[in-house]
Amino acid sequence: MFYKYHSSDGAEFAGVEKVDIETLGGDQNLFKESCEDWLEREDGVIYSRDFAKDPIWISGADQEWETCAVSCKFGFDPSKKPDAAFGSPQQSGVASVLRSMESASYYSENNLAQARRRGYDIVMTTSLSSDVPVGYFSWAEYDIMAPVMPKTEKAHAAAFISNCGARNFRLEALVGLEKENIKIDSYGSCHRNRDGNVDKVETLKRYKFSLAFENSNEEDYVTEKFLQSLVAGTIPVVVGAPNIEDFAPSPSSYLHIKELEDVPSIAKKMKYLAENPNAYNQSLRWKYEGPSDSFKALVDMAAVHSSCRLCIHLATVIQEKEEKSSDFKKRPCKCTRGSETVYHTYVRERGRFKMDSIFLRSGNLTLGALEAAVLKKFKSLKHVPIWKQERPKSIRGGDELKVYRVYPVGLTQRQALYTFKFKGDADLRSHIENNPCPKFEVIFV
Length: 445
Hints:
Layout: E1 2-6, E2 12-16, H1 18-23, H2 35-42, E3 56-59, E4 63-64, E5 72-75, E6 84-86, E7 95-99, H3 112-117, E8 122-124, E9 157-159, H4 170-179, E10 184-186, H5 200-204, E11 209-213, H6 224-232, E12 235-239, E13 255-256, H7 263-275, H8 277-283, H9 286-289, H10 293-300, H11 306-322, H12 326-329, E14 334-337, E15 340-349, E16 356-361, H13 367-380, E17 403-408, H14 413-419, H15 425-434, E18 439-444
Parallel strand pairs: 3-5, 3-6, 6-7, 7-8, 9-10, 9-11, 11-12, 12-13, 15-18
Antiparallel strand pairs: 1-2, 4-5, 14-15, 15-16, 17-18
């Protein structure tokens, strides 16, 4: 039953064979070490691939992501089989990647279901349901917390629309607003009545409203039209993504024309806000008090470049495949002493690769205990959130850690941010008991 083994530094320890542990039902009463120490050791199976020595390799323009959480290289090497390549599926064992920021309404191949049917293994689009989202939003790209400037223009709104053949009703909405006596200065090719040779954001700053009219109404397709409006400190009037509320810094920060029939009511709201400074300023309170946690959690995703997130995704998939091998299936993942069982789980911050151990006890296997264990672990590591240097200083916060979401590794960002939630403590218990050594990701805000 008992045996001796040596650690990497030569120290000698007494142990027990796994088969005997199973016979004992995981009972560790014979051990002097804690369940946590025993699990850390017994579950510590080494992966066959060391990414530090054998980085993720993606066929593409030469680039090395030295700051990525997993070693990652892009380049062309005929002698080396890459882990992934951009473009349609060509080589067995090489993950095919579709990457595009264009609307699926114009480029149907960007539709997730169609991309899967065409054999793509990894999809990178503006859809938060794609494997590695590549949205327009970013703290680095947009000075979202820039101060609000005085609204000096007489017109209610500014418009910059140059594609006059959009596949939605945006031009009809513009005409409809004008019929409702909303004065619009148009700087784009469509309905132009002002010289378009201007700086867009600087121009928008002078208007109370901006027509953030996309060229298609597609879930998650939110472009610079909306984000530049936020930078400018104007209220975007949106024709576009049906879920634009997911991308808004506060519920009152935008107006949404969901269908043409909404135009009269939106025009009425615009007039009211334009004539009532207190009400108008309420819509911009987020500029002074900070955006919602949900908005920060969304934009923080872009603190890690999509190319790095692609490498993390690939490395995670590679390890998950190996975890189906017999060596990993032999891991105990739990330790029982008397009436209590300690469960071994793993967690990492979104945008990181390395997993850290946390332990949960059967007597307190709750959502609250999971969050507390996550906070305790990362505080002990003096962890600095990955977005800390990316966010504007005014909304970075102090040294405290605040959990926004904890979710199983492998979910899409749409699930992680908006649709997934453990139904309760029983649901969490079921997940942990049915998924030995489960892995979680945490989003801090």
